[in-house]
Every structure is written in C-alpha cells, then in structure tokens.
Amino acid sequence: MVLDTSGRWWRGTEFADISEYVRALTATGYQVADVRQSVCHCSGEEAELGVGFSEGQGGETRWITVGQRCARCGVLASFVDWKIDCAPTAHLRSQV
C-alpha cells in the first residue's frame, strides 16, 4: 500500500488505499466500520463514475445521484443518492 498525501489530492495504488482514505475523511464524525470493494456481477472491478445534480426552485441542488458503468461489461447502476436539505449548494458541484 502506497498512499501519497503530499499534494492537494490524495493518491493511491490499490483498494486498501481507499479504505484508509475513507476512514481519514470520517475521523472526526461517524467512524467507518467496514469498507468493501464494489465488484460487478461479471467480476469487473473497474468502473466509470458520474455525479448527477437535481435542482429545486431557485437552482439549488436538492438531490445528488452517483452512477457507475462497469468498464468490463458496460452495466449501468446507481449505487447511492441523497437529499440535500441545506443552502446555498453551489459549492457542491465544484467539489466533484
């Protein structure tokens, strides 16, 4: 495991790095109990991700949806979405 935290963006070389990163993100809040690798039914372990933003009145983001496409077989899925109950929300798009 080689996790590089020297720059603005942390960089890793393997799945174990994701676990360390997620645990560091939540160090001051709810602790992560388990991190599991996402694997497609075709056994594909690589995916492309996309983030969708649904807007409410006034252009504020109300829902965020994360979709993925398996790089091996092309299957599409949405594995997480959540409602946004705060404003302003413009900063959310710049963080993707």
Topology:
Blueprint: H1 15-25, E1 47-55, E2 61-70, E3 76-83, H2 90-94
Antiparallel strand pairs: 1-2, 2-3
Can you walk me through this structure?
By secondary structure, the chain is of the alpha+beta class. The chain has two domains: 1-37, no CATH class; 44-96, no CATH class. Helix content is 17%, strand content 28%. It contains two helices and three strands; from the N terminus they run αβββα. A three-stranded antiparallel β-sheet has the order 1-2-3. Strand 1 and strand 2 form a beta hairpin. The model has no long low-confidence stretch (mean pLDDT 89).
Care to give the gist of this entry?
With about 100 residues, the protein is an alpha+beta fold.
Major beta sheet summary: 3 strands, antiparallel
Number of strands: 3
Q: Report the sheet-strand fraction.
A: 25-35%
Pattern of helices and strands: HEEEH
Backbone shape: globular
DSSP helix fraction: 10-25%
- How are the strands ordered across the major sheet? 1-2-3
Q: Look at the helices and sheets and give the structural class.
A: alpha+beta
Count of spatially separate domains: 2
**Which oligomeric state applies?**
single chain
Count the DSSP helices: 2
- Low-confidence parts lasting 5 or more residues at pLDDT below 50? none
Mean pLDDT: 89
Radius of gyration: 16 Å
For the terminal residues, how far apart are their CA atoms? 25 Å
